[in-house]
């Protein structure tokens, strides 16, 4: 007898992890784990990092949840979907009846698809009627978003395609480590580095800094001052682009009144960066034919994150870079849908289309699409950390639903956050695996992951992508959209108001975004399936999209960009006698965010299985520590035991810990939740610590 060969089906899709959203194909044969092949896509140029190569392992992970779990007598036990959803709806209704609508809160994630971000925001405002919704993107790029809106009137991470970087003479990377966080990105920097123009600002000698032509190492929390020093040098050395400043901007005079006091020698005393290097960078940027200033988390995750990003934008404006073909300013978004996730209404102060929830016209438009009266929509709620901090307190939420986030590991002062979660009357999570946050829940709902469902993502360039379903999910696992739809109906909403099909939800999202700053009304699944490169805004079906923004005008009503005067104040928690060192946190190549996914992939976890602390050898010696031994890293909020890695290139006053690990290895046990006053971003990037041997010596 003849046996038919199994037919392998290749599905063109994108990586489950970071904002580069590398193109890949998944090939599956019936019943098997799919294999991954890199796909030529402009952002990754056919490259993948280790995380992308190993991503199919997530699909077959034995750690996957395959049944809803309900806590009974203190233990999470399998339950049917009807039992779990009925329980959730009953408890939410009770809590709302007794304590009011704002007693129920929702927490989302920057990895959720556009459709999920949109339906989650609608679910909170319409089905629950609560103002209490925010998401983990507040921890990620909210400071750059706020600074971008101040300066340009609109925030799109990169307002130009990544491939434009290839022609740059100079790229100034501030607080970004793409060689580890998104390795295929580095191909876009080779043009600048081959021309001697790659400058990296980072207190650590990261793999990205290793490739730089010039590496500046300011003390953590002083990069705002460094930007002021370089801007001072630009002006003092006659490099100000006066005609651009006159034609395309306002407010330079107020900025110069502050910057005039930040001469490079003064800034050297604040930052530790030599005045000569500040002048050198000013000259390199000024002489470049094309140049870019790019910021990331290192600039943003501070209690002064918005001001810090504004300082780097001011520098770019003084040189005439933004809105010029082949030059510009951009923010490197981190999470997979960090861009789209901030546009569709899961943020405490926003409605879909990147509209402000307090704006009457925005409320009217979105309420019309949703078929509810505008006055029924709640106003702005608490920001992410403030929401977590208020859980279970007098006027705080009593119940929380978490989608796509693992706050027990990823939030600052994480022991306190876990305490607040434990103080809730009711915690529900939708999760792939029993993450550290789900382990505290009363109900856990098992949901599909990237290759098991259709959905759109918006990558760091503002390009909308279709992530396609390549494999069937495990039986009895549902999509987040199905969960939201089923819950909304149990809370009394009509089924047609909460569709569960991704394309149907996207069609509604298009209408809700129409006319807003992030206008998706011309993006359709059909156009994406046809391979069109659609960068928002795309205001109608014929519109080709907007790869490059601001070429003619910025988004403020007068078309001009704004200089924003800012001054250096330093970290919220400076070092002192008791805590003499500064700890900074970040990512490693093998792990993504809280590690809930990458710690499940053996090849990744075996490479970096535990937290470590990088310490300068002199600092280690003074603390009695040895390379490879264990250290206690202690801040005012907690302590972490970590293996010592002595790193001679590190500043002696700085230690570094990656933040991907659970339990007592959480770097965020240490971090300071001091918030930026505008973006409400916590100060992840610097806190005061001391080191000791494990016995406390
Ligand atoms: Fe690309 Fe990021 Fe995925 Fe790595 S993790 S393959 S850089 S999208």
Structure overview:
It comes from Prauserella muralis. GO terms for molecular function: 4 iron, 4 sulfur cluster binding; metal ion binding; molybdopterin cofactor binding; NADH dehydrogenase activity. Keywords: 4Fe-4S, Iron, Iron-sulfur, Metal-binding. Pfam families: Molybdop_Fe4S4, Molybdopterin, Molydop_binding. This is Nitrite reductase. The protein is α/β, with parallel strands linked by helices and 697 residues long. It has 4 domains: 9-59, ADC-like domains (N-terminal domain of TfIIb, Single Sheet); 69-139 and 337-500, 3-Layer(aba) Sandwich (Rossmann fold); 145-332, 3-Layer(aba) Sandwich (Dimethylsulfoxide Reductase, domain 2); 581-693, Barwin-like endoglucanases (Beta Barrel), CATH 2.40.40. Helices cover 29% and strands 18% of the residues. The strands form 8 sheets. Strands 5-4-18-17-16-6-7 form a 7-stranded mixed beta sheet, with helices on one face. A 6-stranded mixed beta sheet has the order 24-26-25-30-23-27. Helix 5 packs across helix 15 (305-318). The longest helix is centred in the first third of the chain and has 19 residues, at 81-99. Residues 15, 17-18, 20-22, 44, 48-49, 51-52, 182-184 line the site of iron/sulfur cluster.
